[in-house]
Amino acid sequence: MYINRTRIWRAIFCKTEITGEAMKILAIESSCDETAAAVIEDGRTILSSVVDTQIETHALYGGVVPEIASRRHMEAVVRVTQKALADANMDKHEVDAVAATCAPGLIGALLVGANFGKALAFSLNKPFIPVHHIRGHIAAAYLAYPDLKPPFLTLIASGGHSEIVMVRDYTSFEILGGTRDDAAGEAFDKVARVLGVGYPGGPKIDKLAQDGDPARYKLPDSHIKDAPLDFSFSGLKTAVINLAHNAEQKGETIDRNGLAASFCAAVVQTLVPRLEMAVKQTHTQRVVCAGGVAANSFLRAALQDMAKRTHTRLYLPPLSLCGDNAAMIGSQAYYEYLAGNVGCTLQNAFATAEIGENICEKR
Ligand code: KG4
Ligand code: ZN
To answer: Counting atoms of ligand 1 from 1, which one is nearest the CA of 31?
Structure first.
């Protein structure tokens, strides 16, 4: 039987049996409006991935309603987990560990997946691995690119976070810059509401912008004094809101395609030059983009251009791995496990936690 070095190392540090079998982690994600479960082998291979989205419910209210999200997670978590196990052709006793997103996110929503995962792990007498959601978004790139290893630079652009992060190792992160107010996804969702295209805004604005002129409206950029890698989206968001209201008051029709295209261009213009500056500062060879907004077609194109200009290799996960899913949580969980980050029965969930914080509560 072939036993690789990682397995011996894992056995020593995590006090598990040395086996030739790959490690199969059942992962659960419930930080916002998706209930997801997946089975991941050795952090890199997706055996199954199930995502149950609540988007239609929240779209009725124009955004995520936290209490409804928690209830919907409770209704879905068992079914979604059973489907992930069935799709992987596995019985629950065959998983080696259970992982769940424990921070950051909507606290009620997080508690559903975290408590379910914890109870399942302890009832099976398996380790429980708490995972940071944004670390998970980054790990989506490990699933898409088997050769990718830290260190690398990452642009995180999601509904709740927008940061430029140096990933020093699988569990070691340094924030180099980030938003001072709204996250990129938040700005997309707000602008979508103003344009009356509904929730979630990102994909809809992206689609509208395909037929628009990015130079149609002049929108502001942000500059943070003495912090060149930091940025802000609140001014941009307000500028779009004001533009729409002024047009309404004057009885003018807004060029919705033009405004969507100008907004996408402004977001790209905020993120990409700062990322490029960070590439030059860190002399990195590899750049990852992660999070829901990494699905944006204009951002993806601009990142490809930047990679050519800076002679860096760009790692862009497929759209299916950009949004919230449990596969990315199962991938990061493997590396948390190797680092000894196994939670105890008292493991809690946290609404906020920086990416560098270790959220694991050990005995
Ligand atoms: O990472 P994610 O799925 O959830 C969080 O962790 O927040 O990101 C969701 C965000 C939403 O704000 C959504 O509007 C945005 O990602 N998004 C997009 C696109 N697809 C999703 N934003 C811009 N363009 C897209 N194509
Ligand atoms: Zn997310």
So the answer is: 6
What contacts 233, CB < 8 A, 6 or more positions away?
162, 179, 181, 182, 183, 184, 186, 187, 222, 267, 270
For ligand 1, atom 7, the nearest C-alpha belongs to: 159
Distance 85 CA to ligand 2 centre (A): 23
Residue 317, ligand 1, Cβ within 6 A: no
| Ligand 1 atom closest to Cα of residue 184 | 12
Ligand 1 touching residue 155 (CB < 6 A): no
User: Two tokens at 140?
Assistant: 């989506």
**Gap between the Cα atoms of 69 and 63, Å rounded:** 11
DSSP string, 133-171: HHHHHHHHHHHH-TT--SSEEEEEE-SS-EEEEEEEETT
In the structure encoding, which two tokens stand for residue 70, read together?
């928690």
Strands 45-53 and 34-41: antiparallel
Q: What's the pTM value of the predicted model, to 2 decimals?
A: 0.94
What tens digit of pLDDT does each residue of 342-361 get? 999 999 999 999 999 999 99
Shortest-distance ligand to the CA of residue 301:
1
Q: Which residue has the higher pLDDT, 3 or 44?
A: 44
Pocket test residue of 64, 158, 190 for ligand 1, highest count of atoms within 8 A of CB: 158
Residue 202 pLDDT grade (very low, low, confident, very high; cuts 50, 70, 90) = very high
Atom of ligand 1 nearest to the CA of 291: 1
- Mean pLDDT (the chain) is 94
Distance 274 CA to ligand 2 centre (A): 22
Residue 14 is inside which H or E element, if any? helix 5-14
8 Å CB contact between 100 and 117:
yes
9: enclosing H helix or E strand? helix 5-14
Q: Whose CA is nearest to atom 18 of ligand 1?
A: 202
CA–CA separation, 304 and 314 (whole Å):
7
Task: Write phi, then psi, for 103 (nearest 5 degrees).
Answer: 180, 160
CA distance 354 to 349: 13
* Minimal-distance CA residue to ligand 1 atom 22: 202
Q: DSSP letter for 35, please.
A: E
